[in-house]
């Protein structure tokens, strides 16, 4: 059987409980191995306070015979409290060793029993076992936390894939419907048909390439994902082509655009999200989208500006709320997933996102991206 890593990030903490301070000192000296931490209590009430206050306690060595509140009562309280019920308890006692008395200890929550006078070798061996069990428990908790993080990352990745594939697929389907409609209403010339088929073929190749890139990206950790020299102008041209913007919307790339040493997929996702939204919500007979940039030291500040409907202050506050519509338009619902992905990707670069907009005045989104 393979146990998880037991690398000790925090010291193994033992709560020693005995109404006689000299017994506490002897027990600490016996169990101290240089790496353990000890907390001492001389009464049942003090023991409960210490157990509730310190969430790193891994073991309680609990004397049974104490005034006011004996060890059995302390154990009973500990086991009924959600915060302390999983702490291992070893009863330490000099009184009756008969089976009935021992069983009462186990019923109250003890996991082991030591009789006074203590045998030093047996005491050390038992505590060593509980320390190893505690280490395994901590390692399993860390593994569970790491798995939860990985699951969240996978969930985000699924959103990214679904959202980024939706826009080009929608454009491709729209083009197919247009060709189908023209064919029904009027014949299509061979020249026009060849042009449309070329566009469809290009879109298919782009989607295939995009899926391959995403699959490769998913197989690698963040550290393994390779950066490369990216010509931003070429990247934007490819992205715009893949989105199939309607003829009434003009998209302008304001040159010059930089060369960046970065992860291509992430930058493409940001531009695709911004352009997709700018196209989707544009309400003008002649839509216009400008993409430009400004050098900012070791980063570049990009902007995507449109002449669409703009947004109210209330709509802006909803922009990055997952699964809450931003209220841009009644024509199309929005989950907020795309904008959350965009914000996450930009912040990974140490950058920030800024939206400048007002009703009827269009919208400008600015974001920073490191040059390398």
Query: How large is the radius of gyration?
Result: 33 Å
In spatial order, strands of the major sheet run 2-1-3-4-5
Given the helix and strand composition, which structural class is it? alpha/beta
CATH class of the largest domain: Alpha Beta
Low-confidence stretches: 1-7, 322-327, 329-337
The number of E-state strands comes to 12
Report the biggest beta sheet as strand number plus sense, adding barrel if it closes: 5 strands, parallel
User: Number of folding domains?
Assistant: 2
CATH architecture of the largest domain: 2-Layer Sandwich
Domain Histidine kinase: 160-372
Catalytic activity: ATP + protein L-histidine = ADP + protein N-phospho-L-histidine
EC number: 2.7.13.3
Keywords: Kinase, Phosphoprotein, Transferase
């Amino acid at each position: 059987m393979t146990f998880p890593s037991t690398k000790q990030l925090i010291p193994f903490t033992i709560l020693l409980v005995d109404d006689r301070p000299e017994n506490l000192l002897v027990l600490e000296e016996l169990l101290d191995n240089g790496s353990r931490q000890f907390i001492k209590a001389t009464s049942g009430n003090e023991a409960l306070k210490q157990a509730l206050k310190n969430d790193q306690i891994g073991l309680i060595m609990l004397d049974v015979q104490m005034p006011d509140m004996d060890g059995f009562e302390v154990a009973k309280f500990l086991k009924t409290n959600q915060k302390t019920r999983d702490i291992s308890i070893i009863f330490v006692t000099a009184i009756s060793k008969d089976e009935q008395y021992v069983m009462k200890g186990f019923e109250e929550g003890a996991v082991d029993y030591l009789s006074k006078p203590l045998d030093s070798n047996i005491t050390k061996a038992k505590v060593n076992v509980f320390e190893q069990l505690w280490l395994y428990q901590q390692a399993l908790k860390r593994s569970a936390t790491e798995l939860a993080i990985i699951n969240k990352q996978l969930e985000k990745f699924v959103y990214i894939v679904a959202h980024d594939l939706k826009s080009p697929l929608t454009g491709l389907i729209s083009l197919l419907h247009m060709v189908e409609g023209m064919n029904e209403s009027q014949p299509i010339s061979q020249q026009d048909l060849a042009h449309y088929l070329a566009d469809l073929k290009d879109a298919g190749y782009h989607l295939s390439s995009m899926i391959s890139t995403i699959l490769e990206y998913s197989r690698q950790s963040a550290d393994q994902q390779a950066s490369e020299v990216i010509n931003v102008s070429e990247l934007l041209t490819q992205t715009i082509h893949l989105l199939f913007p309607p003829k009434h919307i003009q998209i302008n790339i304001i040159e010059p655009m930089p060369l960046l040493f970065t992860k291509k997929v992430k930058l493409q996702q940001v531009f695709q999200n911004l352009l997709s939204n700018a196209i989707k919500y544009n309400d003008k007979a002649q839509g216009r989208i400008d993409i430009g940039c400004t050098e900012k030291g070791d980063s570049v500040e990009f902007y995507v500006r449109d002449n669409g409907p703009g947004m109210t202050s209330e709509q802006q506050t909803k922009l990055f709320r997952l699964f809450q519509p931003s209220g841009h338009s009644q024509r199309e619902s929005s989950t907020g997933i795309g904008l959350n992905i965009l914000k996450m990707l930009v912040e990974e670069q140490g950058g920030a996102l800024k939206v400048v907009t007002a009703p009827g005045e269009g919208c400008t989104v600015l974001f920073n991206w490191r040059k390398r």
